[in-house]
Amino acid sequence: MTRAEIVKKLVHIEERSIRPQGKAFAPANIALCKYWGKRDKELNLPITSSLSVSLGALGTETVLSLTEEQDIITLNGQRVDGAGSFARRLTEFLDLFRLPGRFFQVETINTIPTGAGLASSASGFAALVCALRELLQLNIDSKSLSILARLGSGSACRSLYNGFVEWRAGELTDGMDSYAEPLPDSWPEMRLGVVMLTEKEKPHSSRDAMNRTTETSLLYKQWPGKVEKDLLALKTAIREKDFALLGKTAESNALAMHATMLDAWPPVLYWLPETIAIFKHVWELREQNVEVYFTIDAGPNVKLLFLQSEIKRIEKVFKNVYIIAPFG
Ligand code: 2P0
After folding, report:
1. Using a 6 Å cutoff on CB, does residue 298 contact ligand 1?
2. 65 ligand 1 Cβ < 6 A
3. Which residue's C-alpha comes closest to atom 7 of ligand 1?
4. In the predicted model, what is the mean pLDDT of the chain?
5. CA–CA distance from 24 to each of 42, 82, 150 (Å)?
6. DSSP type of residue 7
7. Does 90 contact ligand 1 (Cβ within 6 A)?
8. Which domains, from first to last, does the chain contain?
9. Segment 204-227, tens digit of pLDDT
10. What is the spatial distance between Cα 191 and Cα 214, in angstroms, rounded to a whole number?
11. pTM for this structure?
């Protein structure tokens, strides 16, 4: 099944309902149980469910309008080269919603500080589908909106909500049961600390690394069982406010994801020597009874997980840590 067929199933676009502008914000998100592996690459249907926490006011704001002749895309006020991979990916997605002979102007602003290593396709595609809903006056519910965001980028379906969010993998071949939903719980004391090591573009896109892992890693066969166990533990931890359980589950899940990448061929290694040094600092701090854990995505930068009460001790060890309060 194609993305165009899914969009046709979900939305009905009429020239007469178009508004002058659509404007939306969506938060970035960090997975505590990762999305790693697709059962359908065209529709970004995952092999397993995943669970994330959104980053509040840090994300993407998008203003969308119609224009003549060609798509115009700006990022933080700068015009983006239409032939580059960023613009092509957006334009191909916008093609799914295009009326004949009409073009889009997309103004995108990232509220994530440059270099924080958190800017991602997730908040970008989530904000874009929300702006499309407003501009084209699409009459759809939040479940369908999450499905549309997933067609842009898998993790984008989680960025439609604040707080803890679960993306259920679903089973259907058309993916109509694969969308994200928010969990009711909040955890105001929870903090996320980003330890920046590099702003350099990563050597492998997460999309390619994910596909290579599922195609070549034998260890990957263990991943769905690991996720099932970790999701249950994370939901218990969130419900019972058991931070040690949340931290250890998230850390172990991230390390297992990286283990499957190391088992891929050719192998994928995102870590720098400094990445490993941070892991060791975290483990040393835990020996000294500081409740700090980490998670890491498809890149070298580490995200620390801790509670507000530990901020001073964290800042003492990690001098350039950027601290986020996901629940405001
Ligand atoms: C996650 N990642 O759950 C995992 C952990 C990276 C590591 O979601 O191909 O950019 O667009 O569906 O969403 C990054 O993958 O991939 C990702 P596509 P996406 O956050």
Report:
1. yes
2. no
3. 297
4. 95
5. 25, 22, 17
6. H
7. no
8. 3-182 (3.30.230.10), 190-324 (3.30.70.890)
9. 889 999 999 999 999 999 999 999
10. 32
11. 0.97
